[in-house]
Amino acid sequence: MISETAVEAARPAAQARRTASRLLAALGPLLVLLVMFVFLWITSPPFRTPTSLLLIGLEAAAIGVVAAGQTFVILTGGIDLSVEAMVSFSGVVAAILIAGTNIAGGQIAFGVPSVVAIAVALSAGLAIGMFQGTIITAFSMNPLIVTLGFRSILLGISLVATRGAGINIQRDEFLAFITGSIDVGSLRIPMPLIIALAIYALIWVVLRHTKFGRYTYAIGGNETAARLSGINVNVVKIFIYGISGLLASVGGILVMGRLVSGAYQNGTNMTLISVAAVVIGGTALTGGVGGIWGTLIGVFIIRIVEAGLVYLNVPSNAKEIVIGAIIVLAVMLDVIRRGEVKWLRFRRRPAL
Fold it and tell me: pTM, whole model, 2 decimals?
């Protein structure tokens, strides 16, 4: 029989282990990012240039915005597989309105001003996202099935509308501004990166300091308990899928503006990458646990891996292999983090 003194002495050690485990879970993605950064900094001189680092930031902007919306959905225990189609769809809608035609090689910039076209595209993304949320909640359907169906619908609309070709546009002042850069000393900070960081800051405020954010975590933690506590779960979910659709549309506009073309291929692989970034960043696929800044770290981890393949002269075809491996490892990490792998659990000594 262990004395009470011994039990009391063991408690601080157990608490310290739990604290260390929480810190590792919280800081793990950041440590991985720093290790990868230092490795490329040492092994690849071209990586060290400010231009290279800002280019990675530019590459991370659009997918970062998409992943921010995905974070909301996954925090509630759902998933949005339609985001890559929404990226393509919103870009195609805006490009057609700006160009004044849906014929590739036709008129260019004879349509509406870009600010109007972008407003229409973003409104469509918000409405479609909320419509998905309505279907999911009203009919108690699995979000995976609903969003997968809408992925096919939106890609099909984009393909039919463009006849499989990109709709080229010209940038007016507004589009040039949101896809341009701002000079800070000798550096040219990409405007899409600034937009993405502003969105992340806003979402952090919403998740941490508003009722809507608390409701999001509550639904993901225990939806039944959330309902019993008086939260209108259906309304919150509808708005969350609307946010995902809106932010995917923002990502689509950034991609369209950068490429100066709206095409159905613009969002390729963004669904997989966004989910991987969210999970790598510490958000549980079951919902209720995670945060927005972890998602941003996950996005940069993926983009630095892709950049590393280029700087280390790895064949470009290997990119798909690496992305697939990252996704599998991310989900595996999430399962391990939740303690669902019995043989990896630490055995606790029975209390005596």
Answer: 0.88
